[in-house]
Amino acid sequence: MQLRKEKNLTQQQLADKLGISNKAISKWECGNGAPDVSLWEELSSILGADILKLLHGELNPNCPDTGKIDNIRFYVCQSCGNIMTSTGKANVSCCGRRLSPLSPILGDTEHEISVEKMDIDYYVSIRHEMSKEHYVSFAAYVYDDRIWFQRLYPEQSPAFHMPTMRSGGNLYIYCVKHGLFKYPDLLNAIRL
Fold first, then answer.
1. Residues 175-184: pLDDT tens digits?
2. pTM
3. CATH class of domain segment(s) 2-56
4. May I ask the CATH architecture of the domain 104-191?
5. Which of 65, 75, 115, 117 is deepest in the core (most CB within 10 A)?
């Protein structure tokens, strides 16, 4: 009922979309039955809800986001390569699979970063191959209440221009073979 009301749908409107009677909707909402399995995908799509959450009857919201971007979490779908972020605990899925947040590790010599201050921006290069099997997929600079994001693709140069930003943030890069790397306070070193 909660999801139906959030979508501003009456029982009759939802029933019409599913091609069933409104009495069936009423029965489900009173806890006297459940939708046939053949309706779950369409019901999930109409209500904009996760099927698994619907099946378990768990529609509890996450704790309110405190807005602290330092808590950023990155997710990468291993099937399609989609990249997602959250700033708190979240249930993230893609291609029918639940995703776990990536655990960043400190940058290493195999993924060495070099930053050069230009007139109006920074030129960032990564010592890394960029083949279809092994490449850097993205870079993100996270500071204060902002995130700057750069997508990279195989067979292009592992370098990019990044706008001038405040120091004190963290640069993240994601290697499709070795995972997520974190470079804390990278810009402070070049401001000296």
1. 999 999 998 8
2. 0.68
3. mainly alpha
4. Sandwich (2.60)
5. 75
